[in-house]
Design brief:
Protein name: BAHD acyltransferase
Organism: Platanthera zijinensis
Keywords: Acyltransferase, Transferase
Shape: globular
Oligomer: single chain
Helix content: 25-40%
GO molecular function, one term: acyltransferase activity
Family: Belongs to the plant acyltransferase family.
Largest sheet: 7 strands, mixed
CATH architecture of the largest domain: 2-Layer Sandwich
Strand content: 15-25%
Length: 429
């Protein structure tokens, strides 16, 4: 399907909150972490199989009506970003909702078995949010519902990373779905936990380029169990069994280092995003909107013997050592120094790779009333040189979405050590 437009847009509309946002909530302040995050879209797609009792026309009507209600709770998503002031104008400007058709797809199940590539997935998500160059209006969310000839539907979203991390992204989707089936639960939004910086730091440009490729690797349940046990190498107390995420992170980190070294590229650092909500003084609600993830940074030299097993465990140890006290510098008078130090640590790691885990997120529980998703997928790269780890639907395995520059990816997909543990599925096109 390379080079072919499979999807056609049939209508565009603007969905606004069903009730007006009160004047005292008109301005939403970005947090310090939000300010440090690049303004790029996170494209994500949920695929739903045909439902005999829910024809596509009814599904689209329900989605638009329920989105209007969900936006009253997540009202900043219907606003507009003002980057110079690090605020969101919550004036209920609304969200663009695209309706689309893919008449050539007669069987959604067959399409998913084909492992649709980046080009096709890219047609299933809107491109109307993210960088101001792409969206001068500063929209933070856009939605696209695509109807397949078989009656199946995909729901593609682009949410600006400037206002949402993975947890708040899925929380919004879950709240939206719950508003259809149960009326939804109470949502509490808070924007002041990490006060904004008065002096803005230059944004690091990690936007994907035309040469950024995204590939999907899979470890099913048995493969992941074998990776974690590593033929008994973890039996010693000094070498404990890693978590799923630690094992996968270490494996891919080493493979990416090898791919970059083969190109003569320096730098062996990696950053792993850690959810800060569980480290706060009081457990934070998952509905906190914004970015509450921060990178734990390590270099390969700190990995002692340099094996992927060690690297994964070192990342896990550093993440566990993050605690409430260590976050206070990010909240008080020293937050500028904290931000500058973090930025300097990132800058000194050329060709670094960023890891983010979406494991244990209730992605496959997002049911709008016509069934749970058949598959969830990224609609394209979020940032370059990144790795996203996501649960598989039907077992304890994971999918690993890797975005690298073309020359790096060409070497990664031929890495024998990596391919001895994982399966490469789908294609780039």
């Amino acid at each position: 399907m390379a080079g072919v437009d499979v999807v056609s847009i049939s209508s565009r509309s603007t969905i606004k909150p069903s009730s007006a946002t009160p004047p005292h909530l008109r301005t939403w302040k970005l947090s310090m972490i939000d300010q440090l995050i690049p303004n790029v879209p996170i494209p994500f797609i949920l695929f739903y199989s045909p439902s005999p009792s829910h024809p596509p026309a009814a599904i689209l009507a329900h989605l638009k009506l329920s989105l209007s209600g969900a936006l009253t709770k997540f009202y900043p998503l219907a606003g507009r970003l003002d980057e110079p002031t690090s605020t969101v104008d919550c004036g209920d400007q609304g969200v663009e909702f695209l309706e689309a058709q893919a008449p050539g797809v007669v069987d959604l199940a067959a399409l998913l078995l084909m492992n649709p590539g980046t080009e096709l997935r890219g047609q299933l998500v809107p491109r109307a949010c993210g960088s101001t160059a792409e969206c001068p209006g500063g929209a933070l969310l856009a939605v696209q519902a695509t109807v397949f000839n078989c009656g199946g539907v995909s729901l593609g979203l682009s949410i600006s990373h400037k206002i949402a991390d993975g947890v708040s992204y899925i929380s919004f989707l879950q709240s939206w779905a719950d508003s259809v089936t149960t009326g939804g639960s109470e949502v509490v939004l808070e924007s002041g936990y990490f006060p904004p910086l008065e002096l803005l730091l230059p944004e690091q440009d990690r936007r994907p380029t035309e040469r950024t490729m995204q590939r999907r690797f899979v470890l099913d349940g048995p493969q992941l169990t074998a990776l974690r046990s590593a033929n008994g190498l973890y039996a010693a107390t000094t070498f404990p069994t890693p978590t799923r995420v630690e094992a996968v992170t270490g494996l891919f980190w080493c493979a990416i280092i090898r791919a970059q070294a083969d190109l003569g590229l320096a730098g062996k650092g990696a950053a792993h995003m850690v959810n800060l909500r569980k480290h706060m003084a009081a457990p934070a609600t998952e509905t906190l909107l914004g970015n509450f993830a921060f990178p734990v940074i390590l270099t390969e030299e700190e990995g002692e013997d340099g094996t992927w097993r060690r690297l994964g465990l070192k990342l896990g140890k550093a993440a566990r050592e993050l605690n409430y006290e260590s976050l206070q510098a990010a909240r008080g008078q020293g937050r500028l120094a904290f931000a500058v130090k973090s930025r300097e640590e990132m800058a000194r790691l050329p060709m670094r790779c960023g890891f983010s885990s979406w494991c244990r997120f209730p992605v496959y529980e997002i049911d709008f009333g016509w069934g749970k998703p058949a598959w969830a997928a990224f609609g394209g790269p979020v940032v370059k040189q990144s790795v996203f780890i996501v649960d598989r639907k039907d077992d304890e395995g994971v999918e690993v979405w890797v975005s690298l520059e073309q020359e790096e990816m060409e070497r990664l997909v031929r890495d024998e050590e990596l391919l001895s543990h994982v399966s490469l599925v789908g294609s780039q096109s």
